[in-house]
Design brief:
This protein has four helices and 28 strands. The protein has 257 residues and is of the alpha/beta class.
Length: 257
């Protein structure tokens, strides 16, 4: 049975699943769908064409689904989809997509206070956004990425799986998977050994990635030649190394090196 505080304002057109809790003075709009077991604390605003999954916890003063901060947005009914078991802390803002795009966030993410996820972003699973982490529009964040506090990511930039971004970083180019990245502008400093260990990546695969990073960042080769060299040296690449090669090869903004 849902627990709705009497001061909450919930549209009759909104759909709330079983055992949803809505705290005092929260506002939920017409086209909102919220999955079972999600807890919404006081003074939360959820609006727009927003769909939120199960067992999420949304803290005070978060604003989810409000119109994008983008001049090309003309009021279209663009979606925002959020998965399951996410923790969204105080004053977080998340915008829906623009035109024919959408904003999508996966499951099991921790999004800390004052973080912002702009229009058309794609966020994976098990990511951590530290306080005031900011994504501009059309950013892609793969699984298990950690973004340090007060960091800003430029529009159309990609952050690869298991990358970690240091606090106060200015990210203007793609960050390769499995890397540590920091600075203003941000650059890669090495492989994310701690993240790989926590993700139970084998020592053999970690060794492959370490050697591939040496070729990418310390050989003096251009990016295409570095990729060719990696392919020559590792004729039986792990899934992680193959993902690194594909990610780097497909970069449109260039790689943080």
């Amino acid at each position: 049975m849902s627990k709705i505080h009497p001061t909450a304002i919930i549209s009759e057109k909104a759909h709330l699943g079983a055992d949803v809790e809505v705290g005092p003075f929260s506002v939920i709009g017409d086209s909102v769908k919220i999955g079972k077991g999600t807890k919404i604390l006081n003074n939360v605003t959820i609006t727009g064409s927003t769909e939120i999954g199960q067992a999420n916890k949304i803290f005070s003063y978060a604003v989810i689904g409000s119109p994008p901060q983008d001049l090309k947005y003309k009021g279209e009914n663009s979606p925002l989809c959020i998965g399951d078991n996410n923790t969204i802390r105080e004053f977080v803002t998340i915008n829906p997509g623009t035109q024919d795009h959408s904003t999508r966030i996966g499951s099991d993410n921790l999004i800390m206070a004052y973080s912002h996820i702009a229009h058309d972003c794609q966020v994976g699973n098990k990511c951590i956004f530290s306080n005031n982490a900011t994504l501009a529009g059309h950013v892609t964040v793969e699984d298990e990425v950690v973004i340090g506090g007060l960091s800003a990511v430029h529009q159309f930039t990609r952050l690869g799986r298991l990358a970690i971004i240091g606090g106060c970083s200015k990210v203007v180019q793609d960050v390769p998977p499995y890397s540590t990245c920091d600075g203003h502008p941000a650059k890669v400093y090495g492989i994310n050994f701690v993240g790989l260990k926590r993700a139970n990546i084998s020592l053999e695969t970690t060794h492959q990635l370490k050697n591939a990073f040496k070729i990418l960042f310390h050989s003096g080769l251009s990016l295409p030649h570095a990729i060719d060299q990696i392919k020559k040296e590792f004729t039986n690449p792990s899934a992680e190394l193959s993902h690194l090669i594909d990610f780097v090869s497909s970069s449109q903004r260039g790689i943080s090196r």
